[in-house]
Amino acid sequence: MTVLQLQELSKTFNGIYALSNINFTINEGEIVGLVGPNGAGKTTLFNLISGRLRPSSGKILFQGKDITGLKPHAVCKLGISRTFQSSRPFPRMSTLHNVLAGQVFGKGFSLHTRPEDEQMAHELLDVVGIAHKAETLAADLTLSEQRRLDLARALATRPKLLLLDEVAAGFSPVLVKQAIKLINRVRERGVNLLIIDHFLNLSQKVADRLLALDHGEKIAEGPPDIVMKNREVLRAYLGMRYQDEEDD
Length: 248
What we know:
By secondary structure, the chain is α/β, with parallel strands linked by helices.
C-alpha cells in the first residue's frame, strides 16, 4: 500500500527552483532516508509535505488523498507529523505536558486531558527513553533528551508518517546507536518514516531505501548500498575532488 506519493512536485523561490519535478513514493512499513549535501532541497521537501510551504506545481497524495496545499495543522490531523533540525520544546512546560501538547494537534483532538491521554504520554516517554524526566522542565533537558522529547511529542499526534529532520545530528557514535534502536522501536509501532540525514550516520543503517537530492533534483533512489555507490551521489558529496579522481 502506498502511504505517500509525490507527483511532479516543484517549488520555486523568485523564479529559482528549490525542487524540480520530484516523483517519489513511500510504501507501508518503510523507512526512507532523504540524503544530499547542503542546499539539495531536503528541508524544502519536508516543508512541502508538512504544509509549511505550498508547492509551485505538482501534487502530494497521502493514503490516496490529495493534501496539496493543506495547512500544517490539517496535515497533522490526517496523520503526518514532523520534527525539526533544531529542537523546539515548550521550555517552561514539563516534559510530560510537552507530549500532551502534541496530542492536542493530532488525531482525536481534545482540549481536555483524559487519564488515558496521560497514560499514553507516559508510554511514549518510555518509548524514547526519558520516562524518568516526565516532571522535568523541557528547558532543563540535555540536547539528546530534547531530541527524544521532540520525537515523543510528534508520536503523540498519532502519525502514520513521521518526518525526522536530522534526528542524530551532532550525536556521538554511542548516541547514534541509541537512535538506531529508537527508530526501530518507532517502526514497530506501525509508523512509516522519512529521515533527513545529511551526514549519513543514521539512514544507511536503518533505511530500506534512500532518496538522494542535489540542487533540487532527484539524482538517485534505491537500496542504501547501491545509492551510495552512485556516481552522481558521490559527485554531489565529494564535488570536484571526486571529479578529478574520476578523470585520472
